[in-house]
Design goal:
CATH architecture of the largest domain: Sandwich
Mean pLDDT: 84
Number of strands: 25
Distance between the termini: 41 Å
CATH class of the largest domain: Mainly Beta
CATH topology of the largest domain: Jelly Rolls
Order of helices and strands: HEEEEEHEEEEEHHEEEEEEEEEEEEEEEH
Number of domains: 2
């Protein structure tokens, strides 16, 4: 009996080893991961943080970025829920900085004057040049880039002499503990911040009810009467970057960020001004008094260069009910829908958008043409008024290159090989399991026969007279 149990255990261990060996062989071996913390920022009740941090920690070298995730944590590493600290947005921007100027001071005039911005593929002129950026939805929105694609950075042949590649991080967070109107504070309503001038000291126009101009760094949202809190606390943006070393098998992608407020206006050879050109970034949603009605805003945008769309996602604020990007012929390129939280814990906060659905088309299945006119639609509920909302859409586009088709076919071959391995493993496990069950049945039958023979061979007990 003991020998049969040992044999069954041996067969089971063989099955486990088959499954584990296959799993290990199919993992991506070259993907690297680094976790960084932003500089610490201090937030008291109702206060706003909106700083730009220069030369933040970031992977170095000629690499392909594969994923970027972030969240707000406290000094103990605990995740902070949105109803305590609302993450309006974070963005990561790329630039070249002079080697002789190394400063992490966001107010450094020397560093700012030596900037050479390295913007994304477009299309906004004076804003939205970031490589990555999300808001309240950051914990449950996928940012991973599938193989064989990647965002190429750190190419030494493109960096001007005397410069190096650096990264800037902007964090806009609002402490809503103890505030009078939490939703109003997160939507940056000007009356709650008691401001008449924006962050540059420019008067705020009378019809501007709320938005970025009213909740700039250092402002404070109105607290409840008589509220006494526990004071300020230190926070960080924890960000996780995944990447691989660059090689010729990787297909580069370009980042495009579209804005539903884009008027199409562009100024040739413009220098940065205080006014936004074309892309207004934010807008207001008027109340129609019913959850059945809403604000449906559309704009047309020309994408300069086409290719295969391999990723898409929208960015909306609370009140958003979805966004869609259409091709010139009306086809749906990507439809991105919000997920709202239902609880209190971080990542599931009721009333907040905690995730946006993403699009991952099969390679080559969704294409855009050079100069194609796209239509962006952003939809919000009109049940209540919303100020300073956004209707952005991110897509990643792989332009046709000499090695892109070969790389895609190579990845498809690898994926097919993995499927073949999984199928073979399934068959082997099935066969082995059938053998084990069959062997166990034989052993059980044999043991029952032996027991029966043993009983029949026993002498009956004699009764005492």
């Amino acid at each position: 009996m003991m020998g049969s149990k040992c044999l069954l255990l041996s067969v089971f261990l063989i099955l486990i080893s088959i499954h584990v060996s296959v799993s290990l062989k199919t993992q991506e071996p070259n993907l690297k991961t680094s976790v960084f913390l932003s500089p610490k920022f201090i937030l008291g009740h109702g206060h706003v943080q909106n700083k730009f941090y220069l030369n933040v920690d970031f992977p170095k070298g000629h690499i392909a970025l594969k994923e970027f995730d972030a969240e707000v944590i406290d000094e103990a590493g605990n995740s902070i829920p949105l109803h305590e600290t609302y993450l309006h947005h974070w963005v990561v921007m790329r630039y070249y900085g002079l080697l002789k100027n190394v400063s992490k001071d966001p107010e450094s005039e020397t560093e700012l004057k030596s900037f050479i911005w390295v913007r994304n593929g477009g299309v906004c002129q004076e804003t939205l040049g970031q490589y990555f950026g999300l808001g309240s939805e950051t914990r449950h929105t996928r940012t991973s880039i599938p193989d064989p694609y990647g965002i190429e950075v750190g190419n030494p042949t493109l960096i001007p002499e005397g410069y190096e590649e650096r990264w800037l991080l902007n964090i806009h967070a609002i402490d809503t503990r103890g505030v009078e109107d939490r939703a109003g504070c997160t939507e940056c309503r000007c009356d709650l911040y008691n401001v008449t001038k924006d962050g540059r000291g420019k008067p705020i126009r009378d019809n501007y009810k709320g938005g970025l101009r009213c909740c700039y760094h250092g402002t404070k949202c109105k607290l409840k009467d008589g509220f006494n809190g526990l004071g300020a606390r230190g926070l960080y943006l924890k960000y996780t970057v995944k990447w691989v070393e660059w090689d010729n098998s990787i297909v580069p992608v370009k980042i495009y960020i579209f804005d539903v407020t884009d008027t199409g206006e562009r100024i040739a050879n413009s220098t940065r001004t205080n006014e936004r050109i074309g892309c207004q970034v934010e807008y207001d949603v008027q109340s129609c008094g019913s959850p059945k009605c809403g604000d449906d805003r559309k704009t047309s945008i020309v994408i300069p260069h086409g290719g295969d769309v391999i990723y898409g996602v929208a960015h909306q604020h609370s009140g958003g009910v979805g966004s869609t990007l259409f091709g010139q012929d009306g086809r749906v390129i990507c439809n991105s829908m919000p997920t709202y939280g239902k609880g209190e814990e971080a990542g599931n906060e009721a009333g907040y958008i905690v995730g946006m659905s993403t699009c991952y088309p099969e390679p080559g299945s969704v294409k855009v043409k050079d100069g194609e006119t796209l239509t962006l639609e952003s939809r919000y509920s009109g049940a209540t008024m919303h100020t300073g909302v956004m209707g952005l859409f991110y897509i990643l586009v792989a332009e046709p290159t000499g090695n892109s088709l070969a790389s895609i076919q190579g990845v498809q071959s690898v994926q097919q090989a993995k499927l073949n391995v999984y199928f073979l493993t399934f068959v082997l496990v099935g066969v082995a399991l059938a053998l084990v069950l069959g062997f166990a049945y034989v052993l059980k039958t044999k043991e029952e026969e032996q027991a029966y023979e043993s009983i029949n061979g026993q002498q009956p007990y004699a009764l005492d007279a």
